[in-house]
Design brief:
The structure is a single chain. With 378 residues, the chain is of the alpha/beta class. It has two domains: 201 residues, 3-Layer(aba) Sandwich (D-Maltodextrin-Binding Protein, domain 2), CATH 3.40.190; 161 residues, D-Maltodextrin-Binding Protein, domain 2, CATH 3.40.190.10. The chain has 13 helices and 15 strands. The protein has a 15-stranded mixed beta sheet that branches. It is globular, with a radius of gyration of 21 Å. It starts with 5 loop residues before the first strand and ends with a strand.
């Protein structure tokens, strides 16, 4: 297996970066530079020629040509926030004669790097693999190129986004500690957690305003007024311990620091349960708390990619063999199978267009709601 470069950044980028996309267009030349726009246009034209050729092909002929072109390029650069990226790269490098380099950071920092490099006329990555919000910003800024294939057509409709394609979903679920609670103790919906009896027994995550927005609008559509929905979440937050980070949230849930977490990731709970922790989100004998919020995470082709064929091949890989890898990691893949863990449940997704247009509004509202909770230090 080839040696590859992996950079891990612990720096936290400001949420404002995601919401504003750093102001002006990053595809324009930076101040003091000359020929920046021409450089971008030439790189984009070169990549577009490859993308258009591949997007116009189907079946085995496409696969054969794609592998030939990708291995001729021989390299691939990925910027990602995916904590499971190593498993994907290992499988990809075992299957194809392509050297992969990876820059890994949290989603906001990865986006910041993409935006800054693009603005400087530096084309450091071929694909951008991260959360929906950051991918939508990159697409809005004109940095991504459409991916077309028969595989994309199989992706859940929530993951067929403009400019990028979901490869997996982060699934927000209500998970609980089985030493602290029985399944029968849980309400059918999160409305039940507004009861004062849950004081100090539940958890919310500090940055989950996309989950909050999805739930808020769900209740509006269900007939509640805005005042009623805000009051509901204020009562829930008043009972909550507020945690920063889903990994920390999962660890504290396993340790019994609170009885239940209202927006924990399903794969966090499943991995902990596999390792012996007394946690569950999908119990035997009853349905999980619903609705379940799913947020697409995926991959976009950079329009100025130096290795556009290898980039396209990696997207194909995530939608084929990558789906098996995700399943082995308790992730919910973007292409439904006969063993869909969400089948039969009420599933909703964050309103992407609303979050793009009014993200700060929802971030601020969620922060205001959380002021009634108890912040838990790591």
């Amino acid at each position: 297996m080839r040696q590859r470069s992996v950079v891990v950044s612990a720096a936290a980028a400001l949420t404002a970066l995601v919401l504003s996309a750093c102001g002006g267009s990053p595809t324009s030349p930076s101040e003091g530079s000359s020929g920046g726009s021409s450089k971008v246009e030439k790189a984009a034209a070169r990549a577009q020629k490859v993308y258009d050729k591949l997007n116009g092909m189907t079946g085995q002929a496409r696969t054969d040509e794609l592998v030939k072109m990708a291995e001729a390029e021989g390299s691939l650069s990925i910027y990602t926030s995916n904590t499971d990226i190593d498993d994907l790269i290992n499988g990809f490098e075992d299957a194809y004669d392509v050297d992969v380099s990876v820059y890994r950071a949290n989603s906001e920092t990865a986006l910041q790097r993409v935006l800054q490099e693009s603005k400087a006329g530096y084309f450091g990555n071929d694909v951008f693999e991260t959360n929906s919000l950051e991918l939508n910003v990159a697409n809005k800024e004109g940095l991504l190129y459409p991916y077309k294939s028969e595989l994309r057509d199989q992706v859940r409709k929530e993951g067929q986004a403009d400019g990028w394609t979901a490869s997996r979903f982060n699934v927000f679920v209500v998970g609980w500690n089985t030493k602290k609670l029985k399944a029968a103790d849980l309400p059918d919906t999160i409305e039940g957690f507004a009861d004062p009896k849950w004081k100090g027994k539940i958890s919310l995550e500090l940055g989950d305003y996309d989950w909050f927005t999805a739930m808020y609008q769900y209740y509006l559509k269900s007939g509640k007024s805005a005042a009623e929905v805000k009051d509901l979440f204020s009562k829930i937050a008043a009972n909550a311990k507020v945690v920063k980070g889903h990994t920390v949230q999962g660890e504290l849930l396993s340790a019994g620091q609170f009885d239940t977490a209202l927006s924990v990731y399903s794969h966090t709970v499943d991995k902990a349960a596999r390792d012996g922790a007394p946690v569950v989100w999908k119990p035997k004998g009853r349905d999980p708390v619903q609705p379940i919020v799913i947020r697409p995470n995926g991959i976009g082709l950079m329009k100025t990619a130096k290795n556009p064929a290898a980039a396209t091949l990696f997207v194909d890989f995530e939608l084929t063999e990558g789906q098996k890898i995700f399943a082995g990691l308790f992730r919910i893949g973007s292409i439904p199978t006969g063993n869909d863990p969400l089948e039969g449940y009420e599933v909703i997704a964050p309103p992407e267009k609303e979050l793009q247009a009014n993200g700060k509004k929802w971030d601020d509202l969620y922060a205001q709601i959380l002021e009634g909770g108890q912040v838990v230090d790591e």
